[in-house]
Design goal:
Layout lengths: L12 E5 L4 H16 L3 E6 L1 H18 L3 E5 L25 H9 L2 H9 L7 E5 L5 H7 L4 E5 L3 H13 L11 E3 L8 E3 L14 H12 L3 E4 L9 H9 L2 E4 L10 H6 L10 H9 L7 E4 L8 H14 L3 E4 L8
Parallel strand pairs: 1-2, 1-4, 2-3, 4-5, 5-8, 8-9, 10-11
Antiparallel strand pairs: 6-7
GO molecular function: UDP-glucosyltransferase activity
Pfam families: Glyco_transf_N (PF26168)
InterPro entries: Glyco_transf_N, UDP_glucos_trans
């Protein structure tokens, strides 16, 4: 009697390429852990300064959970493009005027990445890269593998931005404060031109870059979003229909971090005005679910008046709060 051989499932090799920004790096590291937990090989592409932000997290995943996550660091050519020393992330960029130079420097990572992938014993199965890294579309085509786009935003924001760009309703109003309705949304959504995200802001030498991002996304196999159905029901389907691509909710990906150490180590902790002990003591002294946590992200750049108004509003609320702000505001 012949014994039937059961073949082991093929291990997939995912190449993760996040944009160099906190809100993109952190969830991509979490997604890398989730993929590796399924027995897949994960290669995380980054630069030396960015690798420092999650080195301990990845090392713990490798040593304690035996996850095969390999971090590959390529030198970032900041000097070549006139960027400040060690400026390898968007949150360290001192001015929006340098945004084009930053993206030009990021584009230079394509050649060393493809050379590296050529040398791999187990070839890549799929590239998961940030929307902004349009050149990864060409890399995926060269290796004849799918490229999946990762967005740091939710599907509500993605669909809103897509429809505003497609239909230009913001051009139908005469004042920046005048509201307009966004077409093609599951619900009636009104917004003013002054409330549009930065992607609609005119920046020097960025039009062609933005167009390349849109073109590359239209060629992608699909999109993964760090969100979930209960948070925005119907929006994944609506966005999928709008862009004619598959869209998957995979969030909240932070739930892959079961230990407090992993949760605390996510991203760049930076310098804080109070110690961790003082912060926890403050929280322990408050009623459960009574403290507001306020953080607008590492890329948010408030002018002084906005910062003051937000602070006054928090004070006036009468609620206890923890407010996280950037340590350096050179642009203010």
């Amino acid at each position: 009697k012949k014994t039937k051989m059961v073949s082991k499932p093929k291990r997939l090799h995912f190449v993760m390429i996040p944009l160099m920004a906190q809100g993109h790096l952190i969830p991509v590291v979490d997604i890398s852990k989730i993929l590796a937990q399924q027995g897949n090989i994960v290669t995380l592409i980054t630069t030396p300064q960015n690798a420092l932000r999650f080195a301990e997290t990845v090392e713990r995943a490798r040593s304690e959970s035996s996850l095969e996550i390999n971090v590959v660091k390529f030198p970032f050519p900041y000097k070549e493009f006139g960027l400040p020393e060690n400026c390898e992330t968007l949150d360290t960029l001192p001015s929006k005027d340098l945004l084009r130079k930053f993206y030009d420097a990021v584009n230079k990572l394509q050649e060393p990445l493809e050379t590296f992938l050529d040398q791999q014993e187990i070839p890549p199965s799929c590239i998961i890269s940030d929307k902004c890294l349009f050149w990864t579309s060409k890399t995926a085509k060269r290796f004849k593998i799918p490229r999946i786009v990762f967005h740091g935003m939710c599907c509500f924001s993605l669909l809103s931005s897509h429809n505003v760009h497609l239909h230009s309703p913001h051009l139908s109003v005469s004042l920046d404060s005048e509201p307009f309705s966004i077409p093609g949304m599951p619900h009636r959504i009104e917004i003013a031109r002054a409330q549009l995200p930065g992607a609609f802001e005119k920046l020097a030498n960025m039009d062609d870059v933005r167009e390349k991002m849109r073109e590359a996304e239209s060629e992608a196999f699909g999109v993964i979003v760090n969100s979930f159905q209960e948070l925005e029901p119907g929006y994944a389907e609506a966005y999928s229909k709008a862009i004619k691509r598959k869209v998957w909710f995979v969030g909240p990906v932070s739930l892959c971090n079961e230990s407090m150490v992993d949760l605390f180590d996510r991203g760049n902790n930076g310098n804080i005005a109070i110690s961790e002990t003082e912060c926890l003591k403050f929280l322990d002294s408050m009623r459960p679910r009574s403290v507001l946590y306020v953080c607008l992200g590492s890329l948010c750049r408030l002018i002084p008046n906005q910062l003051i108004e937000l602070g006054l509003g928090l004070e006036e609320s009468g609620k206890p709060f923890i407010w996280v702000i950037k340590t350096e505001e050179k642009y203010m």
